[in-house]
Amino acid sequence: MTVSTQDRPNDLYSSPYLVDYYDIVAPSSQSVDDASFYWKTYQDLKALRSSTPDDPFVIMDVGTGTGRVLHGLERNAAEVNADFSNTEVLGVDNAQHMLDKAEKTTTGPLEGHVSWINGSALDLEAVMRERVHRNTDLLIFSIGSISHLSEDGQPETFLNQVSKVLRPGTGRAYVSIYDGSLLHKKKDIAFHQPQGVTEIQSKVFPHIVYRESNHRGDLEGNIKYVKFDLKAVNNEDQTILEKNHISMKMRQWEEDELVSLSSKTGVTFVERIRGAHETFYVFKTTA
Ligand SMILES: C[S@@+](CC[C@H](N)C(=O)[O-])C[C@H]1O[C@@H](n2cnc3c(N)ncnc32)[C@H](O)[C@@H]1O
After folding, report:
1. Ligand 1 centre distance from Cα of residue 158 (Å)
2. Ligand 1 midpoint to CA 50 (Å)
3. Distance spanning both ends of the chain, measured CA to CA
4. 34 Cβ below 6 A of ligand 1
5. Comparing 189 with 84, which gets the higher pLDDT?
6. Could you tell me which residue ranges the Methyltransferase domain spans (predicted)?
């Protein structure tokens, strides 16, 4: 692949090198083990009504990234020889390079049942507008990704959008808040934040290493600014192929803040479920 040296946008998701780096350092399904949780949830919800080709069970994974959660469902399905007949799966993200990798790495029972869609968590109605089946039975916003909705009012906009696309009655949205993004957490959860200059070997591109430096995380009010520099370097001739100044605004949360926020939106809070590193907040549409 040829990528010229250039300054990139500030996020972690907008080039093939960043996508590769993200998948190396981000929490994996092994480290957070949410895949089996979502698999059980899918089965429990699927049992509530009989889905048909005309009215399939719809899973929407918002901020799907490289499809980690959906691929986890795929692995669980493969283990018990289940297929996704009468299930339609949507992986939605606003970073096309993440979706490209998600699609490329879909090789199991999801094939033919999943659509990877470039869309926004803030406009889920637009995602559904073109689709035949518009009622989502299981909506997932995994692993604290809601922290990306860091501008005032964005979490509420998201929840209002959820209320527009969720199946009335049985549809459920599972929104995760990561323990590491709690403002008054009891213990520190380690994020990937190494000291000094660290080098990580690419898993995809031969001879490419990622050099990261200047990690810092400045907290201002309820926003954490996650900043570091990342270079993609050809280890053979030391050519810098890409230079990134990562700077991401991540919303931090008071415990149960999402519940009080939700009361001003079109969803109703159902329950909270403690995971190993996160809390899943469950919502349904307000009748
Ligand atoms: C922390 S990653 C999580 C990826 C994946 N869901 C997982 O669990 O590994 C957050 C993802 O949310 C996406 N994202 C951030 N803001 C978004 C928005 N407004 N709409 C859609 N996707 C968004 C990013 O592009 C990124 O892929």
Report:
1. 13
2. 31
3. 51
4. no
5. 84
6. 59-169
